[in-house]
Amino acid sequence: MSNTRRFHLGGLLAATFGIAAASAARADDSGIKVVYHLSEGVQQASRAIGNIRNHLNAEPKTKIIVVTHGPGIDFLLDGAENASGQPFAGAIGELSGRGVEFRVCNNTLVSRKIPADRVVMEAKVVPSGVAEVSKLQARESYAYLKP
Fold first, then answer.
1. Do 3 and 49 fall within a single domain?
2. Would you say the pTM of this structure is higher than 0.85?
3. Which one, of 12, 133, 119, lies nearest residue 66 by Cα?
């Protein structure tokens, strides 16, 4: 093998290992980033809450953002209850305390004529739920889950 080829092969291997090491370090330091996408109402929200708890129990360093639009915002409105009549407030507060972020689509609020002050304090209103999901995936490397 010529010296030039050895040099290029060595550089390629070094770059490959460097990228792999940097990726592993990022994952070890901050965990995986996941966006949970909710658009179907309180039954989907109930499933998602269970999924998120299980997710964090298995991988506590995971950064989770829940993005909602359409009927998916309903569980993040003051006084919302699940199908059994239990308030969502406790679960939202618990997950928020574990670092989960909740985001609500302003387009949905406007189209459904819901005042923003009805959104629970743990949630942040964003201009567009679908734009938020795509931004998190494309620009911030979040994995996508839809329970």
1. no
2. no
3. 133
